[in-house]
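User: quick one, fold this
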Amino acid sequence: MASKPGILTDWPWKSLGSFKYVILAPWVLHTVYTSMTKDGKEIDSVYVLLFPFLLWRVLHNQIWISLSRYRTAKGNNRIVDKGIEFEQVDRESNWDDQILLNGLLLYIGYMILPGVMQMPFWRTDGVLLTILLHAGPVEFLYYWLHRALHHHYLYSRYHSHHHSSIVTEPITSVIHPFAEHLAYFLLFSIPILAGIFMGRSSIAAIFGYITYIDFMNNMGHCNFELIPKMLFSIFPALKYLMYTPSFHSLHHTQFRTNYSLFMPFYDYIYGTMDKSLDALYEKSLIRPEELPHVVHLTHLVTPKSIYHLRLGFASLASKPYTSKWYVWVMWPVTYFYMMLSWTYSGTFILERNQFDKLNAQLWVVPKFKRQYLKKIRNESINNLIEEAILKADERGVKVLSLGLLNQSYICFTYINYKPKGTIQVLFRGNLTKVAYFIASAFCQMGTKGDRLNCYGELYIRRNPNLKIKVVDGTSLAVAVVLNCIPKGTIQVLFRGNLTKVAYFIASALCQMGTKVATSHKDEYEKLNKELKNIEPESESVLSKSYTEKVWLVGDGLTKEEQLKASKGTLFIPFSQFPPKRLRKDCFYYTAPAMMSPKSFQNVDSCENWLPRRAMSASRVAGVIHALEGWDVDECGNTIFDLQKIWEASLHHGFRPLRIPT
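Assistant:
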């Protein structure tokens, strides 16, 4: 919003929210009706192509958004280092409004303007006319309109809304008040209307011109340099006819230079060209990929979660992950990505952050939760995780933290073949990566595996020369859960699949004098067995009443069990995946997580289902280990000092999530 909003600032359909697209319905229906009632006459191609063209514009913009976010996360050729925050994402969430406006005006104009029916697809003279009129009057008028918008009266009422984004994204290019967009539409209509009234217009000229505007707008705001220097060496005059992302980035950081639209020659003529342009352009071109100090390795959750990545839909990524009805419409794209994930190998960079001189990155294993549990994918996912660790080590990363199922990924399917009651197994043959993980899982279950090391230390043991430290974040997850339990709690109930985090939480509670109860006999026996290994004096109790007011829950909590809980029960997850909230009369914490400090920069998306600026305990643990310089691994059956990591996280500004209400 501008500092002093003027008239016609808001879009007319703002109150419609997500239903704003219905404004195009009458024109789309009119097109369908007209096409079906031609009685053998030739169908007007513009009517048929206009709506698909609007969809193409949406796709075109989304491609630029995803590309820009990926490239700026990697760091190579990035222009401005400062990150973006949730405020900017919210401000720019209506980037498709200008497509709706243009579509609406194009439909109306095509219906009322004379001589536009049955427009040819191509006319060379019309295309040349469009080019000349853009290079002449459009660029000239835009330059002076832009300078006028920087006058304090218009700037404070309109154009300051656009300049609220110092660090630009492609969609920043179209974030303007409604009145400003009307002015731009009139300006860009000059070549289109001239071609129509002169009888030289064509579909290619109109659609091609609008696509050119979209392309140049997105490129100018993408915040990474992509125009090769060789191009200007071969064609020196090109620097007057085509701007670069560096050119327009300076306009957003300096404000009083580089006013031109796409062709900078008017800045050269009127002396408003920024003198630091060449230096910034060359510096951005040679800028290498950023090397992080800490990496958090996570993976995809569900097929629809791809749209909630920050490389997907920015507005969805900026909110906690929930299923949206309109995502179902995009099932062909979802299905295509699913097929791609089955074959693509290699992690990709999703996000970069800056905190206290520490460079952090978020890497993603391109596999879904469902794939992690499939036998056929066991070894390939293990390979991806290990390759990511080796890649990070090669790049000099200090700490790599494991998120979601990367923490405890083992070969579940093979384990199910072991007869119940087996106390020892013999391994023979060439020991593969799968064999190591099966052995690790058996050891966690109490089954002896001859000569093989147990728990998740296998990555470290298979690569003894690793300098990187691998952290699963168990200690901080345990500390977070313990600090969520209300003071004075006498007894808690454990439900769900028991994990390493659960065992250490139970042990800590027993040492604190809090009774640990389970409602299933097999869990009771398993928990007691593990507690004896951790703390000989610890022991759980078997409960059948479900009257405990505090439930510590993991994966596997059923609907029926939730319904048995008494009113006002507090559900605290110890797993990475929170339970479904089925009870409105109960309270639910999210998965173990902490709120990041405001100095943790470039946080513009939510980590799965966590609220804004919340980070999973495992991710925070990796950051803390790197900040403190702790030269230890935390994986397998090891756990870091609970009090030490909790106090360190608070010292660096991380805070517990507030109690749910």
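User: anything notable?
Assistant: DSSP finds 25 helices and 16 strands in the chain.
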